[in-house]
User: Fold this.
Amino acid sequence: MPNAIEVRGLTKRYGPLSAVEQIDFNVEAGTVFAFLGPNGAGKTTTTEILEGLRRRTGGDVRVLGLDPWTQGYALHQRIGVIPQDFRFFEKLTPKEGILYYGSLFGTRPDPKSLLARVDLEDKADSHFDTLSGGQKQKLGLALALTNNPEVCFLDEPTTGLDPQARRSIWEVIRTLRREGRTVFLTTHYLEEAELLADQVAIIHHGKIIASGTPGEIIRAHGRPERLVFDAPPALGEYLHSTLGVATELRDGRVEVSLESNRDALRILSAVDASGLPWKGFSTRTETLEDVFVRLVGPMDDGALKSEVPA
Assistant:
């Protein structure tokens, strides 16, 4: 498939400070691409360069074959953007908002159809300030689609939403992908990226430190699959001394690393023969969040710096 976004050697500096340093990535057309990183990592800077809102210091960037900075007007006719913490005119209704955005783009959007796509048709005539947080984000998505965009930039589209509203936004994103649109997603919810994204890139201190499918990143940087036993520490000591397997005591449970599927039967047989008490077991596999925390630390907004403003 052709690439909707191509980034080569992208650099953004503010005096001696480098916010983004020589990063490369591609986003295939018709896919969901998740761009992840803690606050201050370079995520927002990169996204705004792709949207044509910031000028890069160096490197080459193409979105739909266009330079976002020098060909911004042409590009903005073909992309949709929903910023983090979307805001709108308080006394405008969703229907009026869609017609207003259509006038800006010179298009004739159908408010009823767009609002139905984001499950907001029953709020067509409600003022923006009466909508819930999830409904406001849905309107933001509808407005981002008024020009029938080929690429949608969604910046933290589910932050602060309840689980039901988040899942509703997820379904809209899946629909955009089925329609062949490209979605560039930034999110602090790692399970969201793992569920939705075809490709992921993790940026930290202005450099991409991991990229690939969620599964590829987990396999490259995650720990092996583990058996988890609700049992005393003595069981871990027994399995380590008897079988030579790596064990760990975590959250009051014994975890045993599996090098292959055949290890599971061998370990279960040894547990049964140990004579030690145990209540049950489960399997544990790494998630994208596990890997992210291992690579860059936990998502703690209070402990991480914001990026330098433009």
The domain at 223-285 is CATH 3.30.70.100 (Alpha-Beta Plaits). The chain is about 35% helix and 25% strand. Confidence is low (pLDDT under 50) at residues 301-310. The chain has two domains: 3-220, 223-285.
